[in-house]
Amino acid sequence: MAADTLNIEVCYASDAVQFLRALTVPIGATIEQAITVSGVLREAPEIDQATMQVGIYAKKKTLDTVLREHDRVEIYRPLIADPKNARRRRKSQA
């Protein structure tokens, strides 16, 4: 690793796409820049960069968050069902 770069990963998963890419980005790069460079937006056109939620290791972050060495940028899909309601439905059917 060069002294002025970071090793990171960008990941996204949906029913149709499983994306995990290791990248080297310059120090000071943001989540938004890493997503753009990764190519995930080409492979998963359903991602809306204006409304998607992102995080690093399951902690929600903003697109302007500056990355650190070994961060894993995660792109989150919207929930299909409210987890609380889903548990209630399963319990009432049991």
UniProtKB/TrEMBL annotation:
Organism: Duganella violaceipulchra
Pfam families linked to this entry: Ub-RnfH
Xref: InterPro entries: RnfH (IPR005346)
Chain segments annotated as transmembrane: none
Sequence similarity: Belongs to the UPF0125 (RnfH) family.
Protein name according to UniProt: UPF0125 protein KVP70_01290
NCBIfam families given in the database record: PRK01777.1 (NF002490)
